[in-house]
Amino acid sequence: MDAPVDSQLPDRAKAPPSNWFLNPYVQIAIGALLVTASELLLWRGAQAVVQPMGIAKWLGIDALASGWTWLGIITYVLSFICWIYVLRYVPLSIAFPAINIVHVLVPVGSWLFLHDHISPMRWGGIALVLVGILLIVGPVARAEGRL
Amino acid sequence: MSALAITFCIVCQFLLVIGQLFLKHAMNGVDLTPRPWRRVIWNFAAGVGALTLWFFLWVGLMQQSALSRIFPFEGLNPALLVLGAWIFLKERLPPAAWVGVLMICVGIGLVTAS
Question: Which of A120, B23, B25, B79 could serve as a FRET partner for B48 with CA atoms 20 to 30 Å apart?
Answer without folding.
Answer: B79
